[in-house]
Write a structure and sequence with these properties.
Radius of gyration: 26 Å
Oligomer: single chain
Shape: globular
Order of helices and strands: EHHEHEEEEEEEEEHHHH
Strand content: 15-25%
Number of strands: 11
CATH topology of the largest domain: Immunoglobulin-like
Structural class: alpha+beta
Number of helices: 7
CATH class of the largest domain: Mainly Beta
Length: about 260
Protein backbone atom coordinates (compact mmCIF):
# COMPACT_ATOMS: atom_id res chain seq x y z
CA UNK A 1 0.00 0.00 0.00
CA UNK A 2 1.31 3.50 -0.84
CA UNK A 3 1.49 6.24 1.77
CA UNK A 4 1.70 10.04 1.76
CA UNK A 5 2.08 12.86 4.26
CA UNK A 6 -0.96 15.02 4.98
CA UNK A 7 -0.44 18.42 3.35
CA UNK A 8 -1.08 20.39 6.55
CA UNK A 9 1.59 18.44 8.42
CA UNK A 10 4.10 18.94 5.61
CA UNK A 11 3.78 22.70 5.93
CA UNK A 12 4.09 22.49 9.71
CA UNK A 13 7.31 20.54 9.32
CA UNK A 14 8.73 23.09 6.91
CA UNK A 15 8.06 26.20 8.97
CA UNK A 16 8.43 25.10 12.61
CA UNK A 17 11.11 27.15 14.46
CA UNK A 18 10.90 25.97 18.06
CA UNK A 19 13.24 23.03 18.64
CA UNK A 20 10.93 21.40 21.15
CA UNK A 21 7.98 21.76 18.87
CA UNK A 22 10.10 20.47 16.02
CA UNK A 23 10.89 17.30 17.90
CA UNK A 24 7.20 16.84 18.61
CA UNK A 25 6.32 17.38 14.97
CA UNK A 26 9.00 15.07 13.65
CA UNK A 27 6.96 12.09 14.72
CA UNK A 28 3.95 13.56 12.96
CA UNK A 29 5.95 14.27 9.83
CA UNK A 30 6.91 10.63 9.59
CA UNK A 31 3.46 9.27 10.42
CA UNK A 32 2.42 7.38 7.31
CA UNK A 33 -1.11 7.99 6.08
CA UNK A 34 -2.53 5.47 3.58
CA UNK A 35 -3.63 6.94 0.25
CA UNK A 36 -6.90 6.03 -1.40
CA UNK A 37 -6.50 3.22 -3.98
CA UNK A 38 -6.51 4.47 -7.55
CA UNK A 39 -9.58 3.24 -9.36
CA UNK A 40 -9.03 1.53 -12.69
CA UNK A 41 -10.30 3.41 -15.74
CA UNK A 42 -11.21 0.12 -17.38
CA UNK A 43 -14.88 -0.87 -16.89
CA UNK A 44 -15.75 -4.27 -15.49
CA UNK A 45 -19.11 -5.05 -17.08
CA UNK A 46 -19.86 -7.81 -19.58
CA UNK A 47 -23.23 -6.31 -20.47
CA UNK A 48 -23.28 -5.06 -24.03
CA UNK A 49 -23.96 -1.34 -24.34
CA UNK A 50 -25.75 -1.28 -27.68
CA UNK A 51 -25.12 1.85 -29.78
CA UNK A 52 -28.00 3.61 -31.58
CA UNK A 53 -28.79 1.79 -34.84
CA UNK A 54 -28.54 3.53 -38.22
CA UNK A 55 -31.96 4.89 -39.22
CA UNK A 56 -31.58 4.39 -42.97
CA UNK A 57 -31.03 0.64 -43.48
CA UNK A 58 -33.75 -0.60 -45.83
CA UNK A 59 -32.96 -4.33 -45.52
CA UNK A 60 -33.20 -5.20 -41.81
CA UNK A 61 -31.76 -8.74 -41.90
CA UNK A 62 -32.41 -12.15 -40.33
CA UNK A 63 -30.64 -13.22 -37.14
CA UNK A 64 -32.18 -16.71 -37.25
CA UNK A 65 -32.92 -18.82 -40.30
CA UNK A 66 -36.09 -20.32 -38.85
CA UNK A 67 -37.57 -23.27 -40.69
CA UNK A 68 -36.30 -22.38 -44.15
CA UNK A 69 -36.64 -25.14 -46.71
CA UNK A 70 -33.71 -27.41 -47.41
CA UNK A 71 -32.44 -28.32 -43.93
CA UNK A 72 -35.54 -29.85 -42.33
CA UNK A 73 -34.01 -33.34 -42.41
CA UNK A 74 -30.91 -32.08 -40.63
CA UNK A 75 -32.94 -30.70 -37.74
CA UNK A 76 -34.80 -33.99 -37.31
CA UNK A 77 -31.65 -35.87 -36.34
CA UNK A 78 -31.85 -37.08 -32.72
CA UNK A 79 -28.67 -35.25 -31.70
CA UNK A 80 -29.97 -31.89 -32.87
CA UNK A 81 -32.45 -29.75 -30.94
CA UNK A 82 -35.52 -28.99 -33.06
CA UNK A 83 -35.89 -25.69 -31.18
CA UNK A 84 -32.59 -24.26 -32.39
CA UNK A 85 -31.86 -22.87 -35.82
CA UNK A 86 -29.01 -21.37 -37.79
CA UNK A 87 -28.30 -18.15 -35.86
CA UNK A 88 -25.99 -15.17 -36.30
CA UNK A 89 -24.34 -13.97 -33.10
CA UNK A 90 -25.30 -10.33 -33.61
CA UNK A 91 -27.58 -7.95 -31.67
CA UNK A 92 -31.02 -7.13 -33.03
CA UNK A 93 -32.98 -3.89 -32.80
CA UNK A 94 -36.72 -3.60 -33.11
CA UNK A 95 -37.74 -0.86 -35.55
CA UNK A 96 -41.47 -0.43 -36.31
CA UNK A 97 -41.59 -2.94 -39.18
CA UNK A 98 -38.86 -5.57 -38.75
CA UNK A 99 -35.84 -6.47 -36.65
CA UNK A 100 -32.53 -4.86 -37.56
CA UNK A 101 -29.44 -7.11 -37.32
CA UNK A 102 -26.50 -4.78 -36.80
CA UNK A 103 -23.14 -4.38 -35.04
CA UNK A 104 -19.96 -2.28 -35.05
CA UNK A 105 -16.33 -3.17 -35.68
CA UNK A 106 -13.09 -1.20 -35.39
CA UNK A 107 -10.89 -3.36 -37.60
CA UNK A 108 -10.42 -3.81 -41.33
CA UNK A 109 -10.87 -7.61 -41.39
CA UNK A 110 -13.28 -8.67 -38.63
CA UNK A 111 -14.51 -12.09 -37.57
CA UNK A 112 -18.17 -13.15 -37.83
CA UNK A 113 -19.80 -15.71 -35.54
CA UNK A 114 -22.67 -18.14 -36.20
CA UNK A 115 -24.40 -21.03 -34.51
CA UNK A 116 -24.82 -23.99 -36.89
CA UNK A 117 -27.22 -26.63 -35.52
CA UNK A 118 -26.83 -29.03 -38.44
CA UNK A 119 -24.72 -32.16 -38.36
CA UNK A 120 -23.64 -31.70 -41.95
CA UNK A 121 -20.70 -30.90 -44.19
CA UNK A 122 -23.01 -29.37 -46.80
CA UNK A 123 -21.71 -26.54 -48.95
CA UNK A 124 -21.76 -23.13 -47.28
CA UNK A 125 -20.58 -19.68 -48.20
CA UNK A 126 -19.99 -16.24 -46.73
CA UNK A 127 -20.86 -13.16 -48.79
CA UNK A 128 -20.13 -9.51 -48.07
CA UNK A 129 -21.66 -6.61 -49.99
CA UNK A 130 -21.08 -2.87 -49.81
CA UNK A 131 -23.82 -0.28 -49.29
CA UNK A 132 -24.50 -0.20 -53.03
CA UNK A 133 -25.26 -3.92 -53.01
CA UNK A 134 -22.05 -4.87 -54.84
CA UNK A 135 -20.32 -8.06 -53.69
CA UNK A 136 -16.88 -7.26 -52.29
CA UNK A 137 -16.14 -10.73 -50.93
CA UNK A 138 -17.61 -14.18 -51.54
CA UNK A 139 -16.04 -17.44 -50.53
CA UNK A 140 -17.04 -21.05 -49.76
CA UNK A 141 -16.93 -22.21 -46.15
CA UNK A 142 -16.04 -25.76 -45.09
CA UNK A 143 -18.28 -26.95 -42.25
CA UNK A 144 -16.84 -29.59 -39.93
CA UNK A 145 -20.08 -31.55 -39.54
CA UNK A 146 -20.18 -30.88 -35.78
CA UNK A 147 -23.04 -28.69 -34.51
CA UNK A 148 -21.88 -25.64 -32.59
CA UNK A 149 -20.71 -22.04 -32.80
CA UNK A 150 -18.32 -21.27 -35.66
CA UNK A 151 -16.32 -18.23 -36.71
CA UNK A 152 -15.67 -16.92 -40.20
CA UNK A 153 -12.87 -14.37 -40.51
CA UNK A 154 -12.51 -11.95 -43.38
CA UNK A 155 -9.05 -12.86 -44.76
CA UNK A 156 -6.27 -10.35 -45.17
CA UNK A 157 -6.44 -10.90 -48.92
CA UNK A 158 -9.95 -9.43 -49.01
CA UNK A 159 -10.55 -5.70 -49.39
CA UNK A 160 -10.40 -3.80 -46.10
CA UNK A 161 -13.61 -2.49 -44.61
CA UNK A 162 -13.65 1.28 -44.95
CA UNK A 163 -14.11 3.43 -41.85
CA UNK A 164 -17.61 4.91 -41.78
CA UNK A 165 -19.05 2.45 -44.32
CA UNK A 166 -21.69 -0.22 -43.72
CA UNK A 167 -21.61 -3.70 -45.24
CA UNK A 168 -24.29 -6.35 -45.68
CA UNK A 169 -23.19 -9.91 -44.98
CA UNK A 170 -24.84 -13.29 -45.71
CA UNK A 171 -24.06 -16.74 -44.36
CA UNK A 172 -25.63 -19.41 -46.58
CA UNK A 173 -25.83 -23.18 -46.06
CA UNK A 174 -26.92 -25.40 -48.96
CA UNK A 175 -28.30 -28.47 -47.19
CA UNK A 176 -30.21 -29.48 -50.31
CA UNK A 177 -28.76 -28.53 -53.71
CA UNK A 178 -32.28 -28.59 -55.13
CA UNK A 179 -33.53 -25.97 -52.66
CA UNK A 180 -32.57 -22.37 -51.86
CA UNK A 181 -30.00 -22.06 -49.07
CA UNK A 182 -30.77 -21.67 -45.41
CA UNK A 183 -29.27 -18.30 -44.52
CA UNK A 184 -28.86 -15.50 -42.01
CA UNK A 185 -27.91 -11.93 -42.92
CA UNK A 186 -27.16 -8.66 -41.22
CA UNK A 187 -25.04 -5.52 -41.20
CA UNK A 188 -21.64 -4.40 -39.98
CA UNK A 189 -20.18 -0.89 -39.82
CA UNK A 190 -16.55 0.00 -39.24
CA UNK A 191 -15.79 2.92 -36.92
CA UNK A 192 -12.57 4.56 -35.75
CA UNK A 193 -12.00 4.22 -31.98
CA UNK A 194 -10.86 7.35 -30.18
CA UNK A 195 -7.30 7.78 -28.91
CA UNK A 196 -8.18 7.01 -25.29
CA UNK A 197 -9.87 3.71 -26.19
CA UNK A 198 -6.97 2.69 -28.43
CA UNK A 199 -4.54 3.29 -25.58
CA UNK A 200 -6.66 1.31 -23.12
CA UNK A 201 -7.01 -1.63 -25.50
CA UNK A 202 -3.23 -1.76 -26.07
CA UNK A 203 -2.61 -2.14 -22.33
CA UNK A 204 -5.66 -4.23 -21.43
CA UNK A 205 -5.72 -7.80 -20.20
CA UNK A 206 -8.05 -10.24 -22.03
CA UNK A 207 -10.71 -9.67 -19.35
CA UNK A 208 -10.35 -5.87 -19.55
CA UNK A 209 -10.50 -5.99 -23.34
CA UNK A 210 -13.85 -7.76 -23.18
CA UNK A 211 -15.19 -5.11 -20.78
CA UNK A 212 -13.94 -2.25 -22.96
CA UNK A 213 -15.58 -3.61 -26.09
CA UNK A 214 -18.83 -4.24 -24.21
CA UNK A 215 -18.94 -0.74 -22.70
CA UNK A 216 -18.21 0.98 -26.02
CA UNK A 217 -20.71 -1.08 -28.00
CA UNK A 218 -18.18 -2.70 -30.36
CA UNK A 219 -19.88 -6.00 -30.99
CA UNK A 220 -17.75 -7.98 -33.43
CA UNK A 221 -14.50 -7.61 -31.48
CA UNK A 222 -16.40 -8.22 -28.24
CA UNK A 223 -17.49 -11.69 -29.36
CA UNK A 224 -14.03 -12.57 -30.64
CA UNK A 225 -12.30 -11.33 -27.47
CA UNK A 226 -14.85 -13.12 -25.30
CA UNK A 227 -14.32 -16.37 -27.20
CA UNK A 228 -10.57 -16.07 -26.62
CA UNK A 229 -11.14 -15.43 -22.91
CA UNK A 230 -13.41 -18.48 -22.80
CA UNK A 231 -10.59 -20.54 -24.33
CA UNK A 232 -8.06 -19.24 -21.81
CA UNK A 233 -10.35 -19.55 -18.79
CA UNK A 234 -13.13 -22.10 -19.53
CA UNK A 235 -14.71 -21.69 -16.09
CA UNK A 236 -15.49 -17.99 -16.59
CA UNK A 237 -19.07 -17.09 -17.57
CA UNK A 238 -18.35 -13.85 -19.46
CA UNK A 239 -19.26 -15.50 -22.77
CA UNK A 240 -22.70 -16.57 -21.54
CA UNK A 241 -23.41 -13.17 -19.98
CA UNK A 242 -22.59 -11.36 -23.22
CA UNK A 243 -24.80 -13.57 -25.38
CA UNK A 244 -27.62 -13.39 -22.84
CA UNK A 245 -27.41 -9.59 -22.82
CA UNK A 246 -28.50 -9.53 -26.49
CA UNK A 247 -31.16 -12.24 -26.22
CA UNK A 248 -29.08 -15.24 -27.30
CA UNK A 249 -29.75 -17.25 -24.14
CA UNK A 250 -30.63 -20.45 -25.99
CA UNK A 251 -27.18 -20.83 -27.58
CA UNK A 252 -25.03 -19.41 -24.77
CA UNK A 253 -24.03 -22.89 -23.64
CA UNK A 254 -23.31 -24.30 -27.10
CA UNK A 255 -19.70 -25.36 -27.81
CA UNK A 256 -17.36 -23.43 -30.07
CA UNK A 257 -16.23 -25.83 -32.81
CA UNK A 258 -13.36 -25.72 -35.26
CA UNK A 259 -14.38 -24.10 -38.51
CA UNK A 260 -14.05 -22.56 -41.06
CA UNK A 261 -11.65 -22.59 -43.96
Amino acid sequence: MKYKLPITIKFACAFVADVGAAIALVSLCFTLVPTQPVKSQVPETEIFNAPPPPPDINAPGNRTAGGKRGCESMQKQPAISQEKFLTALVPVYQPPNAELVFGLTTISHPTFWFYVPYKTTSAAEFVLQNQAGQTVYQNPVSLSGTPGIVSVSLPSTASSLKIGDRYHWYFNIYCNPQQPPVFVDGWIKRIEPNTALKSQLEKATPKQRVALYATHGIWYELVTASAELRRLEPKRNDWAKILQSVGLNDIASEPIVDCCR
